[in-house]
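Hey,
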Amino acid sequence: MKQRGWWDGRKDKDSLGFTLEECVENGKPTWVDLGRGGQSGLRMVRENRELIERLSNRIGYHFHQQRATYPRRVERGGFDLELTWTNQGVAPIYIPCAAAVALIDESGQRVATAWPEECHPSRWMPDQAAVEKAREAFSKAHPGEYRLALALTRKKDDTVPSIRLGTELPMADGWYVLGRINVEL
């Protein structure tokens, strides 16, 4: 690519040649190997670290949790939850994935988990905000103060977080902590 000038987007006699960034934005790949290729791959990463980091966060999906709205005091019978997600990648997610919310106690243990039926990661399209409203209940949770957390798991009823978010939030055992919530009778 470098020898032909394609790396820099210089067109050849056949009008071929796009920058790597243009290829990612136009082609919308779900995966690209940016680091293999032996010494030449390592050289590419060393010489273009900023570009490689930027493209790594664009290739495929790159979910961010932008906003979460919920009451600080809730009844075990249910509460309204609104989550705003963005996909800062260039492609939707194609692997199985489910959004989960959980209550985490003071010792860091997850005491209740729910998978909002209204949350669909496969619908979180690139460069668009996805606002999902759900009504959740943690009916088996004892009254008390907890931390409300979320995670992306492989499927509903799976409690192991499997997909990391691009969002900087405090974490508890792989779960992203949104904030405190008080469960009442």
